[in-house]
Design a protein that fits this description.
The protein has helices at residues 36-45, 58-69, 96-103, 123-140, 152-163, 167-170; strands spanning 4-12, 51-54, 78-79, 145-150, 180-187, 193-202. With 206 residues, the chain is an alpha/beta fold. Strands 3-2-4-1-5-6 form a 6-stranded mixed sheet. The N and C termini lie far apart (39 Å).
């Protein structure tokens, strides 16, 4: 038996069609996919013969379709609900300024990692649902490339797991729209395994 490397190619969805300054979180808002040069540049970096995964939210599926149109080899994506964005519950639709005035917020994210908004979930809750899905798909597609079109919070959750860092530290990691982050899972013949971070937040470019 040889070492099996499962490569996760995490893509944050395209920018969304949503009022600037308002929280959307787990709301199902559409993506803006008119930036053809950015999609072509990103498509060139993606592997062939990969397993594709999106979330149940429209913006990730639209991003995958735009990458297909830009030349990426996109199969029929699996839809993984567990990779959906963090729900901010009653905060969704409100302005960031209003939330900041009422409850205070986080410097890099909407709330501290263990804070659960009304009717929503904390970042720690998000990690708890994302990680089992990563482990399941890593085992199911061991040794393959997995392209996952997901959300900023989801990607931070994956990084928290791979880097074995505290959730609060993971919130400091930037994940721009249409950025690419690659995490490699290394499975040794003796059963040992580890994660390796190949790159983070790579922006579309020439």
């Amino acid at each position: 038996m040889s070492v099996a490397i499962t490569r996760w190619w995490w893509i944050r969805h395209a920018p969304v069609d949503h009022p600037v300054g308002r929280i959307y979180g787990a709301a199902d808002v559409p993506a803006l996919t008119a930036d053809e040069p950015a999609f072509r540049a990103l498509a060139k970096r993606l592997p062939e013969n990969a397993v594709w995964v999106t979330t149940h939210l429209t913006r990730t599926r639209q991003t995958a379709e735009a990458l297909r149109a830009a030349g990426a080899e996109v199969g029929v994506p699996l839809v993984e609900d567990a990779f959906g964005e963090q729900s901010f519950g009653a905060w969704e639709g409100q302005t960031y300024d209003a939330i900041h005035r009422d409850v205070g917020t986080h410097r890099f994210w909407l709330a501290p990692a263990r804070h659960r908004p009304p009717e929503g979930e904390s970042f720690v809750d998000l990690i708890a649902r994302v990680v089992p899905a990563i482990e399941r798909l890593t085992e199911q597609y061991r040794g393959r490339d997995i392209v996952a079109v997901a959300h900023g919070g989801t990607i931070r959750a994956a990084l928290s797991h791979a880097l074995n860092v505290e959730p609060e530290a993971a919130l400091r990691i930037s994940t721009a729209n249409l950025s690419l982050s690659r995490l490699d899972h290394i499975h040794e013949p003796d059963g040992r395994h580890a994660w390796r971070v190949a790159w983070l937040n790579l922006q579309p470019g020439p």
